[in-house]
Amino acid sequence: AKNEGPGRLKLFDASMQQTARERLDLEHQLREAMRSGQLSLHYQPKYSIATRQLVGAEALLRWKHPQRGMISPGRFIPVAEDSGLIVPIGTWALNEVARQCKRWSDAGLEYGRVSVNVSGLQFVRHDFVGTVKRAVRAASIPPERLELELTETIVMGEVEQAIVRLSALRSLGVRVSVDDFGTGYSSLAYLQKLPVDVLKIDRSFVQELDREGLPAEQARSLAQAITFLGHQLGLDVLAEGVETPTQLEQLANVGCDEVQGYLFGKPMPPDAFERHVRES
Ligand code: C2E
Ligand code: CA
Ligand code: CA
Ligand code: CA
Asked: Could you report the per-residue pLDDT of 12-68, keeping only the tens digit for each?
C-alpha cells in the first residue's frame, strides 16, 4: 500500500543501521572495559530454607562505564555473546571468583560455595574443562567451593556431549547447577542422565506465587512438580528471585531447599558481601 513506499523503507533502514552501530559501539567499549578493569563481580547470597543458614553466593557480572555509569548484563551480555567476547570475559570471571574464594577462605569467612554463570559458547569449547581446572589450581581453592551455572538450554543442547563434559567437571569436584529451569525444553529422559547437583527454578515462576487465584495455584503446582522431580533425581532445588515472604512460604511448603532473591540480599560488591555474611 501507499504508506509502505520507499520513504518508510528508508526510515526502517536508518533505525536498523543505528541499532547495528550502537551494538558495534558497545562491543568496542566492552573490549576497552575488559582492558581497563571496568568489569567486576557482585555476589548475591543464597540461603537454606530449613536451617536459614547462608549456603553460598552467585557471582554476577557488573560493568561500570566511566561516562555512562552502570550498564546492565541484560544489555551487554547479548553483545558479548554475539561478538564472542563472552569467552574471555567468562574465563576472567571464573578466575576472579576462584581468587575471591581464596581471599575469603584466608580471611576465615564462612561463605559456602560460589557459583558463576557459564555461557554456552564457553561450555562447548574443547578446553573448557581445562580452563576450570586451571582456575581452581591457580587460586589453590578446594574445587568444592566452586559451582557452575549452566542454563537448561545449554545442557539440553548437544546432550550426549554435555553429559561427557559435565562428568569431567564433576570429577574435578566442581558442582553444577541447571539455571533458569522450566524456561527451556527439557527431556526428562536426559535430565535423569545429566550429572548435575542443583536445579534452579526460574524467577518467572517464583513471581507468580503470590498472585491471586488460579495463576498462583498453577505456579505453586509447577514449583511443587519441579521440586519433586529434582528430589527424585537426588538434586537440590533452589528458587531464584524470591522477593516476598509469601513466595518464601509457598516455596517452603513445596519442599524447596534453597532460596536467593532481594528478600534476603541483592547482588553486592565483595566487601559488602563479606559484611553481610559476618552480620547474618
Ligand atoms: P541469571 O543467571 O538468571 O541471574 C539472576 C538475575 O536475577 C540477576 O540479574 C540478579 O541480579 C537478578 N535477581 C536476583 N534476585 C532478584 C529478585 O529478587 N528480583 C529481581 N527482580 N531480580 C533478581 P543480573 O545480575 O542483571 O543478570 C542478568 C543475567 O545476565 C543473568 O541471569 C545471567 O544470565 C547473565 N549474567 C550475569 N553475569 C554473568 C556472567 O558472569 N556470565 C554469563 N555468561 N552471564 C551472566
Ligand atoms: Ca544464574
Ligand atoms: Ca537464573
Ligand atoms: Ca533467570
From this structure: 666 777 788 888 889 999 999 999 999 999 999 999 999 999 999 999 999 999 999
Which is more confident, 5 or 182?
182
* Average pLDDT rounded to a whole number, residues 189-212: 92
Q: Specify the ligand 1 atom closest to the Cα of 73.
A: 30
Which amino acid residue places its CA nearest to atom 44 of ligand 1? Answer: 119
Q: For ligand 1, atom 22, name the residue with the nearest CA.
A: 241
| Angstrom distances, CA of residue 146 to CA of 23, 117, 136, 187, 218 | 33, 11, 8, 27, 34
Question: For position 2, what pLDDT does the model report?
Answer: 47
Closest CA to 38 of 51, 29, 28, 27: 29
Q: Which helix (H) or strand (E) holds 61?
A: strand 54-65
Ligand nearest to the backbone CA of 149: 2
Q: How close is the Cα of 202 to the center of ligand 3, in Å? A: 6
Mean pLDDT, the chain, as a whole number? 93
What is the C-alpha to C-alpha distance for residues 192 and 240, in angstroms, rounded to an integer?
Answer: 22
| Furthest-apart CA atoms within the chain: distance in Å | 72
Q: What end-to-end distance do the CA atoms of the chain give, in Å?
A: 65
- Angle in degrees, CA 170, 173, 175, rounded to 5: 65
* Dist. CA 228–CA 133, nearest whole Å: 33
Q: Is the ipTM of this complex over 0.95?
A: yes
2: helix, coil or strand?
helix
